[in-house]
Amino acid sequence: MKTADWSIVKEASGPFVAGVFAFLLIQCGAVVMNLLRFAALGGSGVEQALRVMAFRTPQFVVYALPISVLFGVSLGINRMARENEITVLRLAGLPLRRIAVPLALAAALVGVLSFLLSETVTPRMNQRAAEEEYRLLFKVRPVAVRADVFFTAGPYKFYIGDMRRTDKSGDPDKAVFVLYRVMVYEMRPGAFPVLITANSARAEGTKWTLYQGVRRELDQRGFTTNELQFPKYEFDVDRSAGTLWSVAQSSEEMTARDLKRAITAAEQTGRANDVRSWQVDYYLKFALPFAGVALALVCFPLAVRFGRSGSFAGMIIGLGAFFVYMQSYLLCKELGERFAPPLAAAWIPNIALLILGLVLIRVEE
Asked: pTM for the complete prediction?
């Protein structure tokens, strides 16, 4: 990089760091206030709510890094344009598209850091946070347990499409749950597992009862060799349904590799539609960290154009870009969970903003 490139990146780094801390303060504050309300109802202390906040912080950082790029670019470049530094660079022979290169590269590096964090620290910390939240909420009221989760208990692996707690006991070991869209994988050494699917089930303690289901045995190639339909099927697991919740994993608590394995397992049993949201989440694990590149290219020409309007204009540009991205992100995620291709749903916001940014740079030149 040339000296000018480092100067451009340095100018954007200050607002970027401030944006990260501001995002973390807002997110952590919201989590703590919400949990403190439940803590007061359940007689728990502040310490437990603070632990949840600490465990959730890595996930907030994953979100904050790409989002804060837009504030770094909009405020940093806005100041450079206001002080005529961008004009000097252009008079020196650097076109706008060349000035934008170090910003795009820096945003890409931030994306790599965000992705690595989401694949290493974040899944484990999210699992710890979920366990703490569960202990806290269980003391207050019967809770609706998370949908679309996989977990393991002894020789069994479970997928639960939806799961509701029906009792009013404060003891997780005595909890009673009604389950829907259940898949059970009975593991066998050196062979494919026995696949058990059921429309509904009841879990009371360690006893599980499945209703209106099918049991399938597979050969070494994965083809069905024996298929049995049953009205009722009972079995025991080595832990209660209440404690299974604490080890169940949502998509945020799994790495991309683990999530892909879970999706593949569901597809092999013909239940791909039940985990469509997980397919979108899988591709978002790659798309979201690199959203900062597209946001940087959108904010850059706008910050140059409105540089003389002051820092307020830079803040408005950042907030506007954030609003547009979040709305497109939520819309595409919803469409992907319903009928749109999950890969396209995850990447369309990035691609659309990237194209928009390149067009704006071209127009500004």
From this structure: 0.71
